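Purpose: get a first structural picture of the assembly so the mutagenesis plan has something to point at.
Setup: two entries, given in the order below. No constraints added.
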Amino acid sequence: MTPALAFLNGVDPWIFAFSFVTVCATVWMGFRSAKTSKTASDFFVAGRSVSVGWNASAISGEYLSAASFMGIAGMVMSSGYDALWYPVCYACGYLFLLLFIAGPLRRFGAYTIPDFAEGRFDSPLFRKIAVCFVLFIGFFYTMPQMKGAGVTLAYIFPGIPYWAGVVLVGAVITLNVALGGMKGITLVQAVQYWIKLFAISVPIFVLASVYGFYGSHLGANDDGRRDQVAPPTSAEVQTVARKPLVEKAPKDVAWVSPFGPLTTKAVNAAAAALPAEQRPAYLAEYQKPYSLLYTYSLIMALVCGTAGLPHILVRFYTNPDGTAAKRTTMWVMILIGVFYVFPPVFGVIGRNLMPELYSGVGAKGTDKVVLELPTLLGARFGVLGSILSGITCAGAFAAFMSTFSGLLVSMTGAVAHDVYGRMLRPKSTPAQRMRAFKVAAVLIGGVAIGLGCFVELLEINFMVGQAFAIAAASYFPLLFMSVWWRGMTMKGAATGMLTGGLCALTAAALTNFSTLALDKGPMGKIFAGFAPLNGYWAHHPLLRILCEQPAIWTVPLAIGLMVVVSKASAATVPADIRMKMLVLHAPEQLGLKQEYIQEHQAGAGH
Amino acid sequence: MHSEEFLRLLMRRQLKLSAACAATFLLALLGMPLLNYFAPAFMATRVAGFTLTWLILGVLFFPFVWIISWRFIRRSIALEAEEVNSIKR
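Result (structure tokens, whole complex):
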């Protein structure tokens, strides 16, 4: 083989073919739909005729990212039970959105959080503050998508390094968005959901029917206790053949029970720094309580964070009214709930059948279990293993492509529309704005690719959790309080959102830097300055937990500040607050929205 | 319709419904770690291979949330219809 084609060594043609077809189909569908809907208003007005079913599929398609598709399975495999909180809260976080935010937000007619921020407080300044968080949350959310891309490419082409995959996939998607394809078109996103559901469920059913079902595989994680007590007598649980665990894998009991390796990491590190004779007493005293705290903080971040994701809330505008917005949310919960049953199964089966992944790091670690597990079938059924692995690769591509392009569109929109169109050049022509959109897309895509190259060593799912924690401490308190409390002022909202959000951002960044400083390769050198932090945290495990999962203190902090500052600046509550509240909460049939708009237009004329 | 009382009534009724649903949800969600904490042996009971806690969290929790959301939507839509009627009358 010529050197130019050396990277094709060891490429499985089936896996390559499926992935390639998915990428091409996505790009083609994006361009085709982009042609039929040229302007933003086209997109949104057309959206109003979208049925609840399509819209719910589209929201689910945009929501299920690389974290859901690859990350959860990898994390369940590496950490066990504790990682289950992620899929459960990713799905159930929508309940908070449904109960408190979806209906009122749709009625208000604001389709991005910056729009809502400006409309609710009559303050263009606040809009600008809100825009910053689109970027903060967006960048934190794109990093794991980029890692998903790097891992998948490194799996398909074993010869290429991790960063090359990130650059390649990032560049393709960025160019697409810049050239106008792949905007958040409902149809494309809806189809993506069904691709992902198909790609995650079919391989599971085939694998399970050959190697044993969910329960049997979990039942095998019993530390051999079953064999000691009695031979396997119960007919319902047949044991499955499992490979011996490698040294780096967590033990069965710790893995399958709550408060396992994920939530006790900080305390275990602290215990390791103590003299050996003090360790058992220390662990007995602190391990479980701190672990409980970690769990609660994680739950809070995920449940509240779901309600504050910028690229998801945009989609609610395509509902015709508040009632449809609520119905859509319910269907989204059902669609993603069905999806989220499957990824942990990959993690459980992977632990039993592919334990060698535990010894891999970065792109070769547990995050690729979804991609690689189906190849096991190759030993018995030949090409079927490759085909199923190709299907999961295709699903992974669908996952990070749809989420990354969705995020890129909302971030680029924020920069081109708010930063350029409103702050830098308020008098720019539409053509100039179009150019600004393209330039911004390339810039933001470039930054996202750059960031993505750094995060090979961080778990995909963990990083998404951090993006949720930032959203939970900034946008969630803003939306929740502004919808339900009329006494909220712009100053209160801004103080709370900025403080809470920035605290969460700093905490998340510090955690990542200190983890990267542990690396023995080039990353360790870049972040060497943060290495002392690990020593400090070894003595203060509680601080480490509060930094790794900041939601438990940042969310109350943000809400508390909002209340206090709003009370102090009560004189600046918008004058037409009663009307705004009526628009938020009264059913559309009363026709309040139109009156509200007319009043405003009349007011502007004076 | 633009009166203070109407707005108060509107918000209180809807918030009451949302809060009741949220309380059911949070009780279950936040109760799970507590059960794991105080009754670890019970939650580790094996049911068809699953530990009890894994079965609840990994499988049964999803339908539970669907039921809450379905009930919320029905009640909330009925509530809105009532409000519209009371104004139109």
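Chain B touches chain A through 48 residues (CB under 8 Å).
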